[in-house]
Write a structure and sequence with these properties.
Blueprint: H1 27-43, H2 49-56, H3 60-68, H4 70-85, H5 101-113, H6 120-130, H7 139-152, E1 155-159, H8 172-186, E2 196-204, E3 212-216, E4 234-241, E5 250-254, E6 273-277, H9 284-299, E7 309-312, H10 321-329, E8 333-336, H11 342-345, H12 347-371, H13 378-395, H14 398-404, E9 423-428, E10 445-450
Parallel strand pairs: 2-7, 5-6, 7-8
Antiparallel strand pairs: 1-3, 2-4, 4-5, 9-10
Helix pairs in contact: 1-2, 1-4, 6-7, 9-10, 12-13, 12-14
């Protein structure tokens, strides 16, 4: 019989007329009962040992066994208590980053003090620059090592700002109703996934820094430095197709149409379109320009019998009379996503926005870190943003665009599986990149790449 449990009702003993239910009894409680029964029997002559066992829900046979093994029970309790209270007195194996501790920590402190926005990825880049052997390590192995090193030195990731948004879950029923009517239209015989299009505009402000940065534990304020430039908001009109195709982007810069800024467009990448608007907003003129320069050339390539289908969100200029008429004149059918549902059923919002913005922001931040220049002229800023935005859009893999249309229960093609993807990085080194035989390496430009 296991002495850690009270007696079973199926056991029969002449003296144990009381058989309680099985229950676990800790060692400390066993010792306590043994000492308590001796005091109770001595103080109250009328109570017997069997009566004491009945009152405490144990069998007399158990109590006798505990009395006999009281010394062993006390030794076992002492060992158990020591194990629970034992504390680790060492910090474990030293980190491989301790060799560059005196170099990397002042660098981190300087970046934090200067309000630079940095994350674990940026620290890993600096570690690889300081120690050549880290360049042969796998990405996630290096990141994990850097994270442990930062925690051990009191550096954590902190939020700079937080912007609240409406919870898209409240609009799930509306989103399901929209999908219920749209899915049959997209699977009709006159449709082709290459001509099922979603377009949306997304802003970018070069002055906005990453919302999180490294800081020391306990710091009450977290500073972030922004680019010093007069160039404000820039808007990108992006279009994607259900087969993974990306339409040429249209970038809207702030300024007067036909002004001197527009002459700079000749120096921008030629795989995109550009237009001026006084506030860099998407108005009727911008929408008509997108339809004429982006949508029209693309849908004109549609095979005979295929009717293009355009999905837009509920933005007033998307379905304004002149814009709607021009879209219809191209033979394109279109539909509007219900308000508040774009976070659930708009492919660009749910699958494209984040990886694209990360790529643009990382390219700009790396340029600032490499050149150590916070003040940029408006002309250079516009060219930098145009190059970064075009490169980010060009390198966005087809699989990411394809999967944006097939996201779980809110996908437009529920019977189609997503394509495998992976998260890797691309390194772009300057011309004086360090060779395997040695040399001086400039800071590499890292871009996120989603596969």
């Amino acid at each position: 019989m296991n002495e850690g449990y009270s007696s079973s009702p199926h056991e029969s003993e002449s003296e144990d007329h009381y058989h309680p239910k099985r229950a676990f009894i800790p060692i400390a409680r066993k010792i306590e009962l043994v000492l308590e029964v001796e005091q109770s029997v001595k103080k109250e002559q009328k109570i017997s040992q069997n009566k004491f066992c009945e009152q405490n829900g144990i069998a007399p046979r158990q109590l006798r066994g505990w009395k006999k093994n009281l010394a062993n029970l006390k030794k076992t309790l002492d060992k158990t208590t020591k194990k629970k209270t034992l504390k680790v007195c060492t910090r474990g194996r030293p980190s491989r980053l301790e060799n560059i501790h005196d170099k990397i920590m002042p660098w981190i402190s300087g970046m934090i003090a200067g309000g630079k926005t940095i994350k674990v990825r940026r620290v890993a880049i600096e570690c690889k620059r300081l120690e050549k052997s880290f360049r042969r390590m796998k990405r996630y192995t290096l990141f994990a090592m850097v994270q442990r090193f930062l925690r051990a030195n009191g550096v954590v990731l902190r939020s700079v700002t937080h912007k609240a948004q409406d919870d898209p879950k409240a609009k799930q029923e509306t989103a399901f109703a929209f999908l219920g009517t749209t899915r049959p239209l997209l699977s009709a015989p006159n449709r082709s996934k290459a001509f099922i299009i979603n377009m949306d505009q997304t802003p970018y402000n070069p002055k906005e820094s990453d919302p999180k940065t490294l800081a020391f534990k306990g710091s009450k304020t977290v500073n972030a430095k922004e680019m010093k430039t007069s160039v404000g908001r820039i808007t990108a009109l992006l279009g994607i197709c259900a087969d993974g195709t990306k339409l040429p982007p249209l970038f809207v810069f702030k300024g007067s149409p036909g002004g001197s800024i527009q002459r700079e467009f000749a120096t921008f990448p030629n795989n995109a379109h550009y237009i001026m608007q006084k506030n860099a907003w998407t108005d009727e003129r911008v929408m008509l320009h997108w339809v004429e320069t982006v949508l029209k050339p693309y849908v004109e390539r549609a095979p005979a019998g295929i009717v293009p289908y355009l999905i837009l969100d509920k933005y007033s200029y998307h379905y304004q009379g002149s814009v709607a008429n021009q879209i219809k004149d191209l033979g394109v059918e279109w539909d509007i996503i219900p308000g508040g549902c774009t976070g659930l059923v708009q492919p660009i919002d749910v699958g494209i926005g984040k990886p694209r913005k990360y790529r643009v922001r990382n390219h700009v931040e790396n340029w600032m870190l490499e050149t150590n220049n916070d003040r940029v002229s408006p002309k250079d800023t516009r060219q930098l943003i145009a190059i970064a935005a075009c490169k980010a859009w060009e390198n966005l893999p087809e699989e990411v665009v394809y999967n944006a249309w097939r996201r779980d229960k809110f996908g437009y093609f529920p019977n189609e599986a997503t394509k495998p993807t992976a998260f890797v990085e691309e390194e772009y080194y300057s011309s004086d990149e360090e060779s395997e035989n040695g040399g001086t390496m400039r800071l590499p430009l890292f871009l996120f790449k989603y596969y």
